[in-house]
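pipeline/complex-builder :: batch 7 item 3
reading input block
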Amino acid sequence: MEKYDSNIVRPSDLAETIAKRWHWQLNVSLNAKLSQCYVECDRSHLLDLCRWLIDDMEYDFASLIVEEASDAWLLRYIFYSESSSEQVHLCLSLNKMEKTIPSISRIIHAADWREREARDLFGLEFEGHPRLVNIVLHEEWPEGVHPLRKDFDGTRPYPHREVEPSWRPPRVVQGPGVFMMPIGPVFSDAAESALFLLETVGEDVIRTTPRFFYKFRGVEKIAEGQSVDRVLLLAERFSGTSAFGHSLAFCQAVETICRIDVPARAKTLRVIFAELERFRHHLATIAGICNSTALAVATSQASILEEEALRLCCTLTGHRYLFGLNIPGGVALDLGKEQGDILRHALPVLFKNLERLYNLLRYSSSFLDRLEEVGMVAKEDARSYGLVGPIARASGIARDLRKVLPYATYAEVPFEVPTEEEGDGYTRLRVLFREAEQSVKIITALSSSLPEGEASAPGVAVKPGAALGWAEAPRGATFHWLRIAEDGNVARYHLTTPSFTNWHGFHLAAEDFAFQDFPIIMATFGLSNAECDR
Amino acid sequence: MWKWVWEGIRRGIVTTAYPARQETAPGVSPGFPAGMPRTVVASEEIEAVVSCCPTEALVREDRQVSFQEQRCIHCYRCLRHLTPPLEWQRQGNYEWAASSRPRAEMEKKFGKSFRRSLHLRVIDAGACGACLSEIEQLNKPYYNMHRLGFFLTPTPRDADVLLVAGPVTDHMRLPLLKAYEAMPAPKGVLALGACAIWGGIFGSSFASLGGASSLIPVDILVPGCPPPPLAILHALLAMVGRAQPKMCLPADSPQGGKTHV
């Protein structure tokens, strides 16, 4: 099912172990350049392989990618690990007539939402899934319509069926005095649309059922048949607050497919911009956390820093949210000496004020009372839900794509991945502060020693093929799967986003806590529904 | 607690002087191509300029290239991938609000009593998050829209103006309609950013309507991707007749909010 590159080398230890263990029945190959191990697997071996990867090899599940070929369903299960720099792709090819696949959700809880998503979008049935109900398509979509199938026309409006406006999902908790409190989809001041159904007996939230995809724009479908240049605009605009991280993952996928060598200067500039985005994003999340606890002066101070970071981004690159920078082959804009000076002058001032804010916050007992031991996520839960980003790192999982699957020049940049164990709201805040500090360190180190050369590779030609691009976006690991057809247009674009991954685990933190803690827990998660819903 | 009071005083006032004075600080606006419409003699050059724009913001009109602010998404391709590049204007370029209604009509709609007390409800109809982040900045010290009498309200029943961001996804169609219907009259609608004006990069598809005007009447359009806080502030001032918006064709007309030349 997969045409492998010519540069396949002898199987590594992992590939050999897999092949041996399954008595050479599975076709295992390795792309050493990308550190990817491909296992051509069939349905009878799928569950065994998953169990072995998760339990024995301590791999984590990253994503499930479904593709529709003319005669087959191609499923790709991606695994990665905290300790190894190898990815494992389990590739499963199914006859088009078959629509049932063994569900891996009972072994890997992190796959739960991804299998539900694949069911909604492609109409595949996952046998043995604990709760295979809709997630992407809401009740106005009729049964049997699956928008990511090739025969579905995504360009025209789809006539939906009418639904009862007062529709509510069934209540789970039954008992005297239990009621359901709906929050959303339109709520709070400028919150993103989502519906949270909180079941409570008055004070404690017993069960949280979030409903997302109110903002489903069908990015993956509308990308199909469009040119790479055009899909790049979608990649950076579907989640505007993490635009650079996503456009970077997309461009790296294009560069892998088209075998483009990115100049060293471009790689370094990408790291600088990515860290600038992370710094700005973390400032915004910190401001959101202060706001959720109604600490007015702290909110104002954090927001002042956020706006100053936005203005700095705009002064350096022209855009406040770093749009229009990444292009296949590098970045569209070089940093001149003047901009370098602005950056080196402005960043330490911002950072000094951020440290000042942190030192004030950590001695404000009324603030800490609202955060400490609130919204707990235990390490084992974080692992089984496959959580990513600062949320996972606050629960003791040190996984960071910049370290485990280094891209751009992260392998050569010295930095730490702040990791803490407690997993409560205050821990997540501390991780945000410490990551912002690391970002400043990286930018300071790199901006004074930019390598000479071009900011982008000349003469980029689009070639057909498929590849995975990844990046550690501000909210965590993102994987962009891209297939370019023979005509140079995009045939399949799949987005694995940190907000989707982490919203899955949100209910862990939001259950068994007092009702008034809910907005605070949500702020400490700092997730984006635009990024989740796509 | 005194530490926080001291911290607030120490930091001082950072709020912009706009609209009393123009804001001159760098980095407040992503800007737009300047000097438009531009007369170009060579037909190949017109072709090159027009074809580098992915959203048809640069259009050919006879021997001229004209620029449609509403369609621009700041991809900078006409600045960074075109030789010679178009000139961009950032400094002081943020008063972008456009309306198809004459000023007299807008003044009549909200009258004098709303001039310093206008309540806003934000509806996220599929926004990428950048528009919402810019709205939040309006509520924060640098822009502080309270000083001008604009307030965010958590319920549409208290709202005078609906700020719609995003291309209006199918799943948000019903909540948006319900919010609009729940508002007391007079009600105004502000379409925020390229997405809410014409669908932006997402356009109209199986999952989104391609703009708010196909569902509810829109009074003022704020171009930009995202519109910077000062552009939104300018639109709000225009809503209550305290600033002059540009004139444009009605947003639901075939040309979709095209500016009058």
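note: The mean pLDDT of chain B is 86.
queue -> next item
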